[in-house]
Amino acid sequence: MFQDFSDTANPDQGRLRIPLLREQLKTQGLDGFIMSRADEFGGENMAPYAERLEWLTGFTGSAGSAVILEKSAAIFVDGRYTLQVQDQVDTKLLTPVAILEKSVSQWLSGTLEGGETIGFDPWLYTQSAVDRFRKTCEEKGATLVVCETNPVDAIWTDHPIRPQNPIVPHPMELAGEPSEDKLGKIAKGFASKAHATFITQGDSIAWLFNIRGSDVACAPLPLAFAIVRADATAYLFTDLAKLPDETRAHLPTQVTIAPFEDLPAIIAALSGPDKSWMLDETIVPFAIKTMIEDAGSPIIKAADPCLKPKAIKNAAELEGMRKAHHRDGLAMCQFLHWLDTMAPTDTLDEIAATKALEEFRASTGCLKDISFDTIAGAGPNGAIVHYRVTEATNRKFDQNSLFLVDSGGQYPDGTTDITRTIAIGTPDAEMKDRFTRVLKGMIALTLARFPADTKGIQLDTLARQPLWEVGLDYAHGTGHGVGSYLCCHEGPQSISKRGGVALEEGNVLSNEPGYYKTGAWGIRIENLITVTKAETIAGGELPIHGFETLTLCPIDQRLIDVSLLDEREIGWLNDYHEQVFAELSAELPEDVRAWLAQATKPIHAA
């Protein structure tokens, strides 16, 4: 299996290792250390060698930071992890802080006394982050310094090495555009402004060179750096042993392959007072920017030039996503049929369900990986937004409860991400009310029509309104971008309270409102959607975008309070279920097909 259920979270880790870290800080002349869950490549998916925050504290979330001072320490998490962090770290040693309520800089401002020397790893922070920390330290009379050796690495005696897995070609029929054309497009975009740009994130590099890797779990990424020059020539930096002959032949002739060790010398050779670099200071490591500046080059701030074109899926990528979702829908239907069959037996638990779902996906013969660890939350575990089941937390299903399952697959032609909330036994009135309000929000976003330049923040309200009407909300974004056999979380597009980027035709996003009753149950319904071509509506004046739903899987009608749905919402749900049955039923076993016919039958106004 791709997913394991070992319980890596252990508060004892902090009790043992934070004192060791404090001793190491003294050795390095430091009074404190700022650290983040990050690697030098700037991605969310990280290899074991980079999981320093987990190793030190026990916290296993996909995002977080910590500050370790001589007499105090804090760990910073977002709304997804406010419950999880309480269980995973020693809160006597580490004070959990909600990052939206107090940033790392704000905490430092209220904690530093003056005179301290605070260290950070320049490969794990960007210029923009360093600027914030430096400003705070200066205001408090403290000094921020670069750590030549990461102090966590210095005490991590069995530190894993960086992965050595091969980098493989991504075929043209799936990529839809040659790497040469992508390089030309990227270079043309900055050639009038800069001599070169530096790219760090694995999904940008995989997309740009039409390659894939397996260096991290749940995403087909290589760990590599790239430099693209204004003449569309490029350097690809990685461990040379990872590039088989097939991949070397696949790469465009204008690409020079180099080992990581050559990076400083090549940057120096490409730099100078008349050779400016365009850098995304929210992604590129501070260490890289420092190398370029030390070589005398001016810096021009701009976003990673791969982000927007990568997020706009071409026709081949969209067709691949549709095929992947069709395949994934078949697996999901078989899983939900199995779940309904097993639920009355009182033998189900979260691990059994997770294993079964992965087996159904694997039975397609195309599964390369899961796109993230399956969130399989029975009862109160469903209220933990990014819950990960382990052997220690595994919970049996209770009758008359809810089961939330958020999962996805990585297939060669696309990435999937789907959440369904399932009634186990008979749901009560509150469960049905909350589920129906979440469904109403999901439908409202699905049916949205919007002009060009509409940003995700402007649409986010649509999904929340049915919950707001009764004084409820959820603490995560409504939708994130999704890659094409790349990362399950992709920017810059999002539908959220921070979604400041305009949505464009070909963007793929999640649509996943939710509601979570702490200690009781959680509800989330998620489909993936893609932004459609803008067309003028009859009688309208502006070209208008909409959404096409990619996900094919029934929504549990046992949890719907039909009296809360209007005719338009009922119409959408019936049309969607009709499409699910029409596209999937012929390829399902007879018993699953009969189950699907029942699960997708039309509903009618109360």
UniProtKB/TrEMBL annotation:
GO terms for cellular component: cytoplasm. It comes from Cohaesibacter marisflavi. Residues 17-147 form the Creatinase N-terminal domain. The keyword Metal-binding applies. GO terms for molecular function: metal ion binding; metalloaminopeptidase activity. This is Xaa-Pro aminopeptidase. Belongs to the peptidase M24B family. Residues 319-533 form the Peptidase M24 domain.
